[in-house]
Amino acid sequence: MAKNKTVFFCKECGFESAKWLGQCPGCKEWDTFAEEPVVKKGNKPAGVKNTKEPELLSNIKTEADLRLSSGIEELDRVLGGGIVQGSLVLVGGDPGIGKSTLLLQMCREIVNKNKKVLYISGEESLSQIKMRAERLGVFHGELLLLCETDLDLIEDAIHKHTPDIVIIDSIQTMFKEEVTSAPGSVSQVRESTGVLMRLAKSSNTSIFIIGHVTKEGVVAGPRVLEHMVDTVLYFEGDNYAAYRVLRAVKNRFGSTNEIGVFEMQGKGLVEVKNPSEFMLKGRPEGEPGSVVAASIEGTRPILVEVQALVCKTNFNMPRRTSAGTDYNRVNLLMAVLEKRAGIQLSDCDAYVNVAGGMRITEPALDLAVITAIISSYKNIALDNRTVLFGEVGLTGEIRAVNMAEQRVTEASKMGFEVCILPQANKEHIKVTGIKLIGVKNIQEVMGILMQR
């Protein structure tokens, strides 16, 4: 009996090799190759030629409205304005974070608009999906349910019912009979995604696929999976916190900077219309080391609380910890404080946290971080109605940031009375109802804080 031929695939980037390699030549990762059987493709009949001809760009017509609203404003924001017809969207996230709940709520809103939706599950039975749907609310339209993992049968069902939206839960449970490896393997996941991509483009059906994630937080399977789809969404959040953040890491039809904020409740996910108010709930008043920063996520301003705790160390090597912001950036800012402000932090432990579990990496958070560190070190509290933003350079200067007026407007709307910002931004802001204090360097920031 002839031995089946196998090849080795990199689980990170999909690089293919005839033999096992310790390091992938494509992505340079170690120990990522997995052995998979070769996918057997049918031979193309003799005499069959490609009948498609290239089209001139000027002759191609596009419809004015190719997007369908999901009925969930936060989801539409992340998608770039709605669901694009014929798009393939990958939704990833930790187990139990709410991926299936979010998409089932989207199905409810769409079928209530007399649109046809097909929900295909390879993990739950029909009765289990029904129980979850009853918990989420009333479905006025007709939602088609199918429990199947064979992609050939799924493809037949899509051609038969011609739905507007298809949900695949999850891609790791789907399989093609031509691929001899087990469901969830590199070959099966890649081949299944390729079939769904061709199906979405040919039938002009929008398909959402749910993907499991690994312990590192990335979608399980080869990284090439994310390159094949049109949009990649990640559902983030702490299982012990009520809020969830939907973030786009790839979007061919919109920005990747937008986020959607949801709160998990007993009846499903509820949109958070005002994330700033949600993030500042329970904020301590009059406590040293606690300041409020004005951040930007996409086009949305969000106010977050930055906390710092500085205390004398009992060891030769001081401890540095950051949560919610870049660890290396915090170390850089502490070095600037030592050199430019004369604050001796080499014998102190320092802990920096963005309260609420938000992850902020933009440089505009710098001014809030150094102010919180100074406040904790000097044991002086900043006024509760003061908000800050600005980038800090290595020479201690406070540099301008983008969308400053939107940040100030959001702070004024939330009831803050004072805003400390870069002097270069202050000259171009015309917002009333809030006092603007422009600063050029960290020495001026220390002077304002020491007046307390």
* Count of alpha and pi helical runs: 12
Strand content: 25-35%
How does the helix and strand content classify structurally?
alpha/beta
Strand order of the largest sheet: 8-7-9-10-6-11-12-13-14
The CATH homology group name of the largest domain:
P-loop containing nucleotide triphosphate hydrolases
Describe the structure.
By secondary structure, the chain is of the alpha/beta class. It folds into three domains: about 5-35; about 65-275, P-loop containing nucleotide triphosphate hydrolases (Rossmann fold, 3-Layer(aba) Sandwich); about 280-450, Ribosomal Protein S5, domain 2 (2-Layer Sandwich), CATH 3.30.230. The strands form five sheets. The protein has a nine-stranded mixed β-sheet, sandwiched between helices. It has a seven-stranded mixed β-sheet with strand order 17-18-16-15-19-22-23. About 25% of the residues lie in helices and about 25% in strands. It has twelve helices and 23 strands.
Condensed summary:
This protein has helices at 73-79, 99-111, 126-136, 151-161, 186-203, 224-228, 275-279, 327-340, 366-378, 404-413, 423-426, 442-450, and strands at residues 6-10, 16-17, 33-37, 67-68, 83-84, 88-93, 117-121, 143-147, 165-169, 206-211, 231-236, 243-251, 259-265, 268-271, 290-297, 300-312, 320-323, 348-354, 386-388, 391-392, 398-399, 418-422, 435-439. With 452 residues, the chain is of the alpha/beta class.
